[in-house]
Amino acid sequence: MKGPRGDASLVVKRCAVCGKFRAYEADDEYCLACGHDGLDAECGCGRGYEYALDEEGDLYCPRCGRTLRGRSPEFE
Prior knowledge:
Mean pLDDT: 85
Shape: globular
Number of strands: 3
Number of helices: 0
């Protein structure tokens, strides 16, 4: 994903606390939506989240099938 400077510095990350997907710089640690430090750059199976930004409704990892919408079970 190209960043505002035209480089590939942005990474799609998912907040494990609120479940939101957003583009962040690689070293960002805190969620823009809820402020927690539960950002993950990839699913537990290693698949990146680039595909998830424009999707709506229920979302599952295309590699392992894990549900990706909403909070992670450990935060509920």
